[in-house]
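REQUEST FORM: STRUCTURE PREDICTION
Request ID: SP-0412
Submitted by: Lab K.M.
Chain count: 1
Length (residues): 294
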Amino acid sequence: MQSMMSFLRSPAVKNMQQGVWNLILLTMGSSICALAINGILIPRGFVSGGVAGVSLVLHYIMPYLPVSVLYLLFNVPLFAMGWKYVSRRFFLYSIVGTAIFAAAVQWISMPIPVSDPLLCALLAGIIMGIGNGIILRSVGSSGGTDIISVMFQTRFSVRMGNTVLAFNSIVLVAAAILFSLESALYTLVFIYVSSRILDLVVSGFSQRKSVMIISKARGDIIVRILKELNRGVTVIKGQGGYSGESTDIIYTVIAFRQLAGMKRLINEIDPSAFVVISDTAEVMGYRIGNQPHW
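STATUS: Completed
RESULT:
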């Protein structure tokens, strides 16, 4: 029994479990994206963003070219970027993810009974954002602009949703020129919603907040942050610009889910405390860090 437990805890088994979980995420996310593409985008004549959008535009112009085949072909040069600028693990999983995505687009199709074009654009954005977010929760991607987004995130700390939105503007211009301005505007709604949902799924739930507190009851606040929130605290020496009095500034970084508890804690101890709460792009460090996993 003990030998069995040791085997289950071995690095090889853990790596296998991680690999299976990543494949599940890639398959689940790709299937969700395929529902948006085949259930809404293609029937309504909308255009997606990035490489998928370019594939759709060419498919509309030349219907005999399958979207899945075009998507695979356009991804070949992007794989080299993933290999060079991210990691070999990301590159290998991205190849698998791209194949799964192409297969899902080819075989998964379910009509979605929504007729209003604006509602279709909103719903497609939500579905696609969730699907892409699930894919990027793995250690791979589905190819396309996902590879570029991860590269910009890891090398330049640019949010993935912003990168997707920037690259998709090219497809948006093409849709306006080749089809109609109305189609381009619906595509804009779809792209914007998709990019916001993508950020929410990938990093929104692990968002960190930095908190600065100036209070006369700083000792009590520090003790309760350490005990109740289990977060570290740094005390910064400061000075009032008008009064010239020396004061201590409490600085800490907490998870988003702890924000309500932090506000309640401060209000109970010192309702007149001066508090500044800020968003963080990334946090590096033990326990509280939220660095990308690629």
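NOTES: Residues 11-44 form the longest helix (34 residues).
Reviewed by: T.R.
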